[in-house]
Amino acid sequence: MYTYSPSDVGITFAGINISGFSADNVVRINRVDPLYTSKRAMDGTVSITQQRYSTWKVDVFLEQSSESNDFLSGVQKLLFSTNISAMQYLPLIVKDNSGTTMFFAKDVWIETLPELEFGQSLATRQWTFMCNDVECLIGGNAEDLSGITEALAIASAMQSAFNISRNYVDAAIRVIK
Fold first, then answer.
1. Which residues form the domain of 19?
2. 61 occurs within a structural domain
3. Any idea what the CATH number is for the domain that residue 15 is in?
4. I need a labelling partner for 87 at 20 to 30 A (CA). Which of 62, 78, 111, 161 fits?
């Protein structure tokens, strides 16, 4: 059986759970650059170049009444007004807890602030994050998975978490010196 529940999609930023999602949408994730680029030569042959590194765009949709708007606005103000090197390593995690899809980024910034709209009903605030250094597993929602996909996602997340911890320690050492 295949089961998807939007209420099982979890998002954390800087270790804080984001909540109060829009009724219409929770999150949209896009890789900005293609996986491969190609060039055709004059003789018709095609060469392909793998693009290993890409920026990712993550749009998070919150109701205007969500307390997470206050949190994200505060983080944006702090990042914009200070030069704290450790702040560049605030991770963003998106996980479908009813399936195996997982997105993890450790080099994240808020690209644009939401448009403000006030009307007769609750408006949606769309927060746009840009991310580098991403681990993304596009999974499914089947209940009969062997566990291999989830184990790979967990291993990847643990490796990324280790790298983040190392960056925090390195940043702290630079501050102490």
1. 6-176
2. yes
3. 2.30.110
4. 62
